[in-house]
User: Fold these one by one.
Assistant:
Number 1:
Amino acid sequence: MLSIPNHDGWARFQLRGTREYSLNCTEDLPFEWIRQTIHGLSSKNPFCVTADTEPGKLICVVGWNCHVLREEDRESVRAGKIKHEYSDVNMLMFGRMLYDDISFDLDDWVRPGKGPDAGDRAERKAELENLLAELKLLLDGKNG
């Protein structure tokens, strides 16, 4: 579903039945996507994950199935030309794939970002490990 980010900070994203998207600004992506997935699984409510693409923005609505939306620019949104794809991946499947993809090579996901809030590698790794552990409990059905 989600590739390891390359040295320029781009990752690939693809769900069953959708095309492949290149995602930019991935230094915070694993943290944000895992937090959203944890919230969705714990509340049993649909959730969204987002990422920047070139051009535009990707929005993935995760529920009983996934809906991938892509806004190319503001004009396409105003004109109602948002691209939509459907995948039969549900939120539990999404969570498992996200867990597997990020935990597969944690070190590549914790490379320090470029912004002032990026933190250092050890802090980022500890935070991501904690989020992954919380997600794993939910996926295994061991949440309180």
Number 2:
Amino acid sequence: MGVVEEMMDGVAGMAREHRLTREGPYAVGSAFFEVGQYEPVWQAVRTVAEGYAARGELIVGEISGGRITDSGTSSFEVIRGRFAELYIYEEAEAVFIRLYHLSSKEREWVALYVDDNKETPWWPREERGGV
């Protein structure tokens, strides 16, 4: 099981909706929650990330607000959020995690997005042991 699968499994019971898509070395997970699930979702995702961070690097940041613009049109407001970058050195793997508390005119919700690239060229082959 990979990072995205572990994260999606960890939050599936809280999610209104979730999905996982795999194509070649790439995996993408998304899930949507009620606003009250923001902290429990973050804790579940961070626990998985920290388990892998012993073999790499974990960068975490806070988002204090913003806007999502899709195809030139403002779609949603970002009320708050968190992001994390997880690099697993031996596998030359890069995982990007975003958790957003979003709002539209009609409602508010929490969205989780996780992207996993198992073949990132971030490190030269010589540095990753020929992987």
Number 3:
Amino acid sequence: MQVLPIFKESTLKCLEEYIDVDILNSIEDDDYIDILKTNYPFATLDIFKAKLENNSLALDKLSSEYFRLGEEGKYISFISDIYLKNNNSCIIHTGMLNANMSNNIYVMSELDLIDKHIFLNLLIKLYPKKSQYFVIDDIDLLRMIIRGILREYFQAELYFVVKPIIIFSNFDMSLPICCKKQEDYIFYEKLANKNDLFFR
């Protein structure tokens, strides 16, 4: 019988060797997006090449659950590729395991069946946890998190540290990303394009 995947506890300290401390400190600031845009290679990962205007017909697509679910595979493929390039490891910063239990019950009711099993296992083994940093070393666990982020059930940052990149949760399938180096930004932009996604 396969054992369900689980987070391994981590700390902010373990990121400091790989991600600039200035980046990590910026994330604690309310205006972190503006700070990161100014100081680091930064973009928004999106299914559209350019920011949508208020009167764009494409906005109607984003309100369609059918459309959104159909686009999830692109993000899962791209972030899974990043995971593989980073030695099958990712650090997640999330408050999901110390969230209100009624919120977690709602989230679980909305998840796909396999994701329900994974999420329930996390809650059984780890809830409540004061720590907000965990290592993800299982691809199924990562994919559950990605789906939860895209469906706006989870707020989290995903840190990949071998070839550093941070992916932030956000709304409307537009995920801010930040790299430490321009060469990594260029590498990941090409990888996104291969998955029919864009940095804008």
Number 4:
Amino acid sequence: MGGGGQQEHAARALVQAGQMLPRVKLDGAGGPRPLSGPGHQSVLVVYLHPEPCRACADYLDEVAGTVDDLRQWATSPVAVVPSSRELEAAPFPLLHDDDEARRQLGIGRDEAAVILADRWGEVVEVATFGQDHGFPLPRQLVESAKILDLSCGECNVPGAEWRS
């Protein structure tokens, strides 16, 4: 999986598979919340572009359509949206974007990202996207969640690739 855009402002390199998801908290409807999943669940972080755009909103709707499938495979989705966006009702937490979180994750200012981390917070898959919006298909996200849920964390069974 490769990155799609430049990393102009990121002081850190993009978080990579095998690294721990940084412990960042972002504001949501119920107050600050960590990116990590609840309890013993994996987490799928959908990090939208910092400026509201139709393609990102459409993708978020597509991911929302898979929320039951993701949860079946012990994966909790969370979306990080532009701070100008209303935190409307969604089938998963919506958190406001934050420059510090972007820096810690290594996501560039003009990038979106999709990050899958296991129940211990170890990043399994990560991809960034520029204005091309080359997001993984929602069924690919579900397949990755399934493989992660069925694989042994000690054996490091490889995950599915998000390339189409």
